[in-house]
Amino acid sequence: MPFLTALVLGVGVLCLIDLVLTVGVIRRLREHQAMLSARPVASPPIVLPPGATIGGFSAVSTDGVHVSDGTLTEPVLVGVFSPDCSACHDRLPEFAERARTYPGGRGNVLAVLVGTEEEVAEQRRTLEPVALVLIEEYGTGLTEALQVKGFPSLALVDERKRVVASGTTIEDLGKIPAHA
């Protein structure tokens, strides 16, 4: 009988230790889950980040104006859009409105449409009154100079060809870093 009592007591102590350890592991997992949830999600930039310098480019707008990295003598607002992108359709009116009031007017706003003339016809009609419109293939001209990896891509580029602000929304352009 004393052997059976000792055995039951030993199993009971082992179960109690196992329960305490299991509760400790569960608490630790919850803490890690909370820490992972609180971490900001960092996605890779889809266009050159602020502070970067754009590469060289040369293009002619739809109305015959020559544009290149050498003609950037004032800060320029740049928007790159694709006809296949639903976010581009949503943000194009905001960009056009911003372009309408941008200092320097139409000559300081570049709208790059990636696609064929037929594919971008609707976007072109919206943007031509407020911007110099460039129609390019992806990975050429200004899309290559800005290292565009997604759409829409927006950027403010200063006269030194340096990106002052960039992102996918007009609000991103308002987040100009202190060193700019």
TrEMBL record:
Q: Does the keyword GTP-binding apply?
A: no
Domain Thioredoxin, first and last residues per copy: 48-180
Q: What is this protein called?
A: Thioredoxin domain-containing protein
Give the species.
Answer: Microbispora maris
InterPro entries the UniProt entry points to: Thioredoxin-like_sf (IPR036249), Thioredoxin_domain (IPR013766)
PROSITE patterns per the UniProt record, alphabetical = THIOREDOXIN_2
Q: Where are the transmembrane segments?
A: 6-26
Mitochondrion among keywords: no
